[in-house]
Amino acid sequence: MEVTKIPKKTISVIEPKRSLIVDKEKYRQKRVAAYCRVSTDSEEQLTSYTTQKKVYSEMIAARTDWEFAGLYADEGISGTRADKRPEFKKMINDCLAGKIDYIITKSVSRFARNTVDCLDHVRILKSKGIGILFEEQNIDTLKIDSELYLVIYAGFAQSESESMSKNVTWSYRKKFEDGNTVFMYKKFLGYRKGEDGMPEIVQEEAVIVERIFNMYLTGETPNRISAVLKAEKIEIPGKKLTFSSDMIANILANEKYCGDSILQKTVTIDCISKIRRKNTGEAPMYYVQNSHPAIISRETFHKVQEELIRRKTRTPLSSKTAITSTGKYSRYALTDVLICGECASRYKRVTWMIKGQKRIVWRCMSRLDYGKKYCKESITAEEKALQDAIVRALNKFNAEDTSTYLALMKATIGDAIGLNGGSEEVDLLQRKIDALNRKMLELINESVQGGDDIESHEDEFKQISETIELLKGRIKTIQELANSDGSPNDRLEQIQQVITDREQNKFQYDDSIVRQMIECIKIYPNGKLEIIFGGGYIVEENLITSG
C-alpha cells in the first residue's frame, strides 16, 4: 500500500491592497452643531438660553477637529413634542441634508421630554452616521451601549415632564379656585391687559361687541353679522380676529362679556400630545361672578342665550347629523358600526357580480387590503343576512327588556328630532345656580361667625339673587321651547308616532334604527354577531346565510 505524504502546511499573509481612493473627508473637520432649549419665556429662563448659546459657541470653536455648524435654539417652547419646535425641526432637516455631522446638547430632557420622539430621532440620525452627545449623562449615541442608557434617561425625562404638567395643572386650578380669570387678549375682542395685570375694556372694540349682541337680538344671524363686519374690513392692531361666523357665535355665547367667567371649560387629556377637550366632568369648573368689568348687561346676555336656544330648538337637527354618535354620516348605516371581531378593522360594503348576478356583501377592510396577512379568519357577510340578524336582535332586545328598549328608543328619537336640545345647557345653568347658592350660604356663615350684620352684605345677596333668577329664567325658557315649539304636531306625539310605526314594521330592516340605537356590531369568524346597543346592552345573534 502506497502512503501519500501530505505536504507541510504553510501560511502566508496577503497584504491588503492599498486604497487608491482619494478620501478628503478624513481630513475635514467634523461639523458640530449645538441644540439648546428653555421651557418658558421668563427672564430667568431667557438668561439660561443666552448662557447656553455662549458656552456651546466657545466649546466648539476651541476644538481644532470641530467646525461650528450652527446653534439651534428654541425659546419658551415645551419639549414634549418635536413638531412644535421649529429650530429642532430645522436642525434635524439640516442633518438629513448632510450639513451636520455631530450634535451636542446639555441633557436628554433638553433634547426631548417624550421618550418615543427622543429614540426615533436618535435612531434616524444614527443610521446616517450622525451622533448626539448628551453632556450631563455623558451619552454618545454612536457608541454601542448608548441606547440602553438613553431609554432610561428619556423615560426619566418624560416622567419629569408629566410631573411638571401635573404641577402646572395644580397651579392653574388653584388660580381658578381663587377666581383668577385667564384671557387670551390677542384673540379676544373688547379687552386688553391693564397696567395692574387685570382685564380692562377697550372702548373702540367694546362698541363692536355691543353691536354684535344688538344685531343678533334684532334678528340677524351669525353668518349675516359676519358678512357685514367683514365688508367693513375692520382691523384691530395686535389682534388676530377674523370676524368669521364661528367667532361671532363664540362671542354671543361667551359669559365674559357680561363680567362673569366660567373657568376650566376644557381639560388637557395628555401632557405629551397636548390634546385638550371640552370638560364634561373630568375636573371641576368654577363660576366667577363679577370677575372683571362687563361690556354688556347680564340682562342682554341672558336674552341672547335664550334667543340662541330658541333658534336652535325651532330648527330640528337633520336625520343625517343628529343620529350618529360620532357626529359623522355615512351613506350606509352599517359602515359606522360593523367591526371585525378578529382584527378590529371596519367592514366595508362590496358589490360582487357573479354570472351576471349582483350580490352585495360586507368584508373586513384589512382582509381586502392585505389578504390573510393580518386577519386570517374573518368572514364575508351577506347584506341581507346581516339585516335579518339585526332585526332579530332588536326584537330579542324588546322581548328581554322592554322598558330599557323603549327608553333608549325614545331618547335617540328625541335627539334626532331636536327634542333633547339644550339638556347640556340646562345642566350647566343648574350647576351655576348651585354654585351661587353655596356662595350665598358662605356669606351668611361668614357674617354669623364674624358677628357682622347680615345687612352689610345686602348688595351682594341682591346681586346673587338676581343672577339666580336670570339663570332660572333661562332654564324655564329652554324647557318651554323644547316641549312646545309651535309646530303642527307636538314633539312627544312625534316620538310616539315613530315608535308605533316601528312596532308595525318590526320585522323590516331600518337604517335609521341602526344609526340611532346601535353603537357597534362585532362579526366573529364563526358567524356570531355581538350587537352592542346604546347604554351597553348586548344581544348575540348568528348570521344565517341563504342557500
Describe the structure.
It is a single chain. With 547 residues, the chain is an alpha/beta fold. Helix content is 46%, strand content 16%. α9 runs parallel beside α15 (458-483) and α13 (402-417) packs across α16 (491-504). The longest helix is centred in the first third of the chain and has 32 residues, at 146-177. It is flat and about 90 Å long. Residues 17-22, 269-274 and 314-329 have low confidence and may be disordered.
Which helices and strands appear, and what pairs or packs with what?
Blueprint: E1 30-37, H1 43-62, E2 66-74, H2 86-96, E3 102-105, H3 108-111, H4 115-127, E4 131-134, E5 139-140, H5 146-177, E6 191-193, E7 199-201, H6 203-217, H7 222-231, H8 245-253, E8 261-263, E9 266-270, E10 275-278, E11 286-288, H9 298-314, H10 319-322, E12 338-340, E13 347-354, E14 357-364, H11 365-370, E15 381-382, H12 383-400, H13 402-417, H14 423-450, H15 458-483, H16 491-504, H17 511-517, E16 518-523, E17 528-533, E18 538-542
Parallel strand pairs: 1-2, 1-3, 3-4, 12-16
Antiparallel strand pairs: 4-5, 6-7, 8-11, 9-10, 13-14, 14-15, 16-17, 17-18
Helix pairs in contact: 7-8, 9-15, 12-13, 13-16, 14-15
